[in-house]
Amino acid sequence: MLGHLGFSYVGLIYLLMLFIPNIVWSKHQPIDYDYSQEDKRLLVLERIGQVCCTCSVLIFSDFNIAPFSLWSLWIIVSFVLMLVYEICWVRYFIDEHTENNFYRSFCGVPVPLASLPVTAFLLLGIYGKVIWLIASALLLGIGLIGIHIQHLKSIKKR
């Protein structure tokens, strides 16, 4: 449950899937985006979760592909969630760059640009049986999903 030290190529793939759209987003933020009202406590949890997730997925080899078994369903579902996350980014980039578009649900999944990767990392942690990634994903989820829900509520008030 603690994890085996070693490089994870799966972790690197997940991080690329996470970071590349976010880098592009930094150049195409919503035109009405205002981060000044974000809860600082949630922001701290998000940042801690980001750092810990990034480190955990890279330094534990437990996330690398193992021979197929029923346990492999954890990584399959996790990877599918990351693919859906990428689809949500494409949807954002080809549509109008507004907060409403950024935070809108996808097939019933609320704030998918926050909830999908957090859930994917949580499932990856379960697949690898690495408590560090599970705990990191939970911290990240509290912060990131919390911030996204705050933004969504402020949009609905306007």
Automatic annotation (TrEMBL):
Keyword line: Membrane, Transmembrane, Transmembrane helix
Q: Which domain of life is it from?
A: Bacteria
Task: List membrane-spanning regions.
Answer: 6-24, 71-94, 106-124, 130-149
Transmembrane helix listed as a keyword: yes
Keyword presence, Transmembrane helix: yes
* Protein name, per record: Uncharacterized protein
* Taxonomic source organism: Sporolactobacillus nakayamae
